[in-house]
Every structure is written in structure tokens, then in C-alpha cells.
Amino acid sequence: MEKLNYILKRILQMIPVFLIALILVFALVHLLPGDTALAVLGAKAKPEVIAAYRAKMGLDKPLIVQFWYYVKSLLRLDLGTSTQYNMPVLDLLLSRFQVTALLTLMATFFTVLIGLPLGYLAGAKKDRAADQGIRALALLGLSLPTFWVGLMLMLIFGVRLRWFSISGWGKTWQDHFRGLILPAVTQALFAASVIIRNVRNNVVDVRSADYVDYARSKGLPPGRIASMHILRNAMIPTVTLLSIRIISMLGGTVVVENIYSLQGMGALLVGAVEHRDYAVVQGTVLVFILLVLFINLVTDIIYSILDPRITLD
Amino acid sequence: MSDHNAAVTRPARRKSLFIPRSISLTCGLIVLAIVVVVALFPGIFTHYDPTLTDPMSMLKAPSAAHWFGTDNYGRDIFARVIYGTRIDILIGVGCVIVPFIFGSLMGLFAGYYGGKVDAVIMRILDVFMAFPFLVMVIAIVAILGSGIRNMLIAMWVVGWKEYARLVRSEVLVARQSEYVQAAKTMGYSELRVILRHIMPNVISSAIIYGASDIVMCMGTAASLSYLGIGVKPPTPEWGAIINEGKAFIQTAWWITVIPGAVLAFVGWGFSMLGDGLSDLLRADGQ
Q: Which of residues 131-160 of B touch A (CB under 8 A)?
């Protein structure tokens, strides 16, 4: 019950942030130079289409009324029409959402898979050879530009060795997974490096904490100390960091989808910017914001489970 | 009174940036020195013109004449990378310096004044945190149009929030300390207390973050150029060179591989510099 209260309060706190973000998304097309209707619909739009858009969005009315029109159309799930694809933005986003979501999930999986064990190992073997080696690798991972790593992995494992598919999304679920492995690893390398460094330092701190000494002196088996005492406490700060990395990887889909010719929301956004398809830009940015808020909420919930002391203040 | 003590315990040798003790700091400073020299005097490293096309030597593999090979216009990749150094470094530094100053000031004010000032600044931060970094940068570029200037503006708008958060959390601690109380008791103006007393004591974490932020900014700028919405060809920027080589990745790997490796090398150097600085400043603080 208390937990449910906490979650509800977190959601309530997010509403003002979402509203301001919504105003910014609304402002996006109004900051464009020139006539908003022409900017959104393109110079080739028919006069009657432009007139209909003006009436629908209330372009002759004050800005605050226009914002209300915008919110009303959003509530009707009307995100406008793409000038580039000539179809409703909502349908476009729905068809692209799956790729981006699955890519980010897989990238997160790889990040944890690489980051947690290596970070723990480095922390447990502080200043020994394993630690030095892992830290050097992590530093390298931080320095490599992600889009270049993507191109290199594609060149080596996709083009030369042909271990993985680089033909994009494919048709079946197996195709999807095979096509997403390289892009997900590309995203995960940077994030895993950040996680490694963080987990290592936390493990070093936690290992010297009194309660770990106490657990040892009680004669608890080392495996239990490692999992219940060290790892659990070392992970608490890492959860927040991981959520920041996931959000950043969500943004990174903009680049990675482009490299691997995946038709996700990131590629959609870049294409929309190139073609000045502003309804799509607005819609995509909005979905990204909703995803970020969702990730933040999930993070808070996980955080409160890992550390029961957290309350809402 | 301290004469006797001084004879017994010698003061610790002064730590200087120019006598680095850590490997990371040494490596970082060497890379920094190389990059600065190349950026200032590109002409002494190559006699090729980075934008001169040569139909006779298109897509040539690396050789004695063309160390990094040539691209599809016959331009020398080595010369393009060398001349690109200045642009990439200027973008990296230029995109950090404005958020560093603005963000740190916001953090100082939020942390020092607290209350309403803090609440307003933190709510603005919350909104900025609701956008993934690259998505917001691209949305701003969508409004302003592409090109170096607009790309920089977009990264300024998005980049200040980390500095504000870092500095604010340090100010919250520093504000309670005795030297701040002392400065206030002396009747110094608030601005003087903030800038002369608090700022020098809280800025180190922002400086450390700044060193790694330069790497991230160079990476972001190169990504945007790679996507075709940053630096426009034929300007020799590393990301833009990689973008132009993308189409030839199967036949002429050197156009994409080598500039990226250079970018990675410089990024590694700045990361080392950041790590070294953080060790140094943390050790000084203790």
C-alpha cells in the first residue's frame, strides 16, 4: 500500500514536467521562421489543406488557445499527418516503436551483462592485474565514438566475417534478434564502460564498510556476502546511473539505427529533420519524452525496492 | 613557533601540473600537446591541400605518398584529418565552454540562495532531463537548421544541466562551511562570497566533468556530421569525413576507419586527462 502511494506520488510529480515538455514540443513548430501552416505542411500544400490546418490548429487565435487545440488533438490521438509519408503520424510511430524499444532493451541487457561482472571483478581485485586491465578497457570504451564503433563492428562482423546479419529488421522474430545484436552491442559498449567504472568504485567502497566486516566475522559464506551484502549495496547508485545510460541509448538510436538501416523512431526523427516533416518531429520527440518519464518511474520503483529507506520527501 | 616543526616534517612537494606523477595525467598531457600543435600549425605536417580534388588518385589505399589513402574525390585523407583537428577541437572546446560557465553559475545560484531560486532552476533541469540528449539536440537543429553554428547552439542549450547539478550539490555542502560564514560576517557582498569564496572551492568537479565532456561533445558533433546535419562537406571535419566514406566502406575502408581511430585516440587522451585531473584535484582536497 505504501509502495503504491509512493508510485502514485511519483507519477503526480511528473505531470508538471511533462506539461512543460509538452509546451516545448508545441513551441517547436511555432519557433520556425515564417508561416507556421506553410512550414508544417510544406510549400507544395494545396490552399484548402492549409486552410483546414489553420482552422484545426486555431492558428488565427492567441497562442494559449492554440496550445489548447494542440492538447485536444493529442487527446484524440491525432498527432497530425506526415508530409513525407502522407500518413497519420500516429500510425507511423506505432510501426517504428517496436524496433527502437527492442533495440534499447537488448542494449540494456548487454550493458548489464558486460558491466556488472567486470565492474565487480575489478572492484574485488582492486589494484591487481585484472583491475588494471578492466579499467584500461573501460577507459577505451568511453573514448570510442559510438557511431564509429557501429561502423567498425558492421565492417568486421557483418561484412568481412558475416557472423551477424546487417540486413536490418527482417521478417521473422529470429531475423529481428539477429539483426539487432550488432546495433545493441554498439550501444552497450559505451554504457557498459560507464557501469564498469561505477560498479568498481562502489564495490571498493562497500567492501571496506563495517557491515561487510561484521558479516565476515559472523562466518557467513563468501558467496552470500558477495551477493547479499556487497553487490546489493554497490548496485544502488548504479541503478540511477543505468537509467541515465538507458535514456542516453534511447537517444543514441538516432545514430545507430541510421548505421544499421533499422527503421525505428531514431531513423524516423533524422529523416523528418532532413525533409522538414515537422509533425513527425513533434510526434517522435513526444514519444521519446514519454519513454524517458516511464524509465524514470521504473527506476524509482526499483530503487525503492533495493533501498527500503527511500521515502518521498 | 612553527620553525621547529618545519625542520622535522618537510612540507610535501608541491604538486604541479607540469610534473605529473600519474600515468593517466602524463598520457593525457602528451595527447593534448600533440593535438594543440597539430591544430595550430597543420601546415608543417602535410603539404597537401585538404580540399583539393585530384581525379588521377581517387580511392587510393594508404601508401608512402598518401599515408591515410585518398577519398572518392582524390583528396588526401591525412591532410583532411590534420586540418580537421582544428575544427574538431574548436567544436569540442566551444561546445563545453559556454555550458561550463552558464551551468556552473546556475548551480552556484541555486545552491547558494536555495528556496525559490533553487526550485525554479531545478524544475527547469527536470524538464531538460526529460529529453534524451541527442533527441533534444536534433529537435533544436530541426528548428534552427543545420551547420556548425546551429549545432553549437543546440549543444549549449542542452549541455549546461550537468554542470548545474554538479556545482549545486557541492555548494550545498560548502555553504555550511566556516570560511563562507566568515566571509559573510566580514560583510562581503553576496556576489563576492559566491564568486571569490565558494566558486574556487566547488569548481573542481565541474572541471573534471568538463574534460570528459569535451570527448562527448566531439563525439556528438561527429555523430551529427555523420548524420549529415552537422558540419557540411567539403569542410574537413572528422565525422563528416567518415560520413563521406560510408558509401565506400566495403571498397575503401581507410576513409571511415582511420579518422575514427584518430577521434578515438584523442578521446582516449582527454579521458586520461580527466582521470588524472580528478586524482590530482581529489588528492589536493584531502
A: 131-136, 138-139, 141-143
CB contact under 8 A, B249 and A20: no
Q: Are residues A203 and A128 part of one domain? A: yes
The answer to whether the pTM exceeds 0.80 is yes
Cα atoms in the 13 Å half-sphere on the side-chain side of B211:
22
> How many residues make up chain B in this entry?
286
Which of the residues B150, B162, B227 would you substitute to probe the A interface, choosing the one with the greatest number of A C-beta atoms within 10 Å? B227
Do A230 and A291 lie in one domain? The reply is: yes
Contact A195, A115 (CB under 8 A): yes
Q: Which pLDDT belongs to residue B2? A: 43
Per-residue pLDDT reduced to its tens digit, B212-236: 888 888 888 888 988 888 888 788 8
Instruction: Give me the residue spans of the domains in chain B.
Output: 28-44+64-285
Residues A201 and A272 in one domain: yes
| Residue B144 scores a pLDDT above 70 | yes
> In whole angstroms, what is the distance from residue A81 CA to residue A78 CA?
9
Q: Tell me the pLDDT band of A283, cut-offs 50, 70 and 90.
A: very high
Q: Domain B28-44+64-285 belongs to what topology?
A: MetI-like fold (1.10.3720)
Q: Are the CB atoms for A7 and A296 separated by under 8 Å?
A: no
Q: Are residues A271 and A172 in the same domain?
A: yes
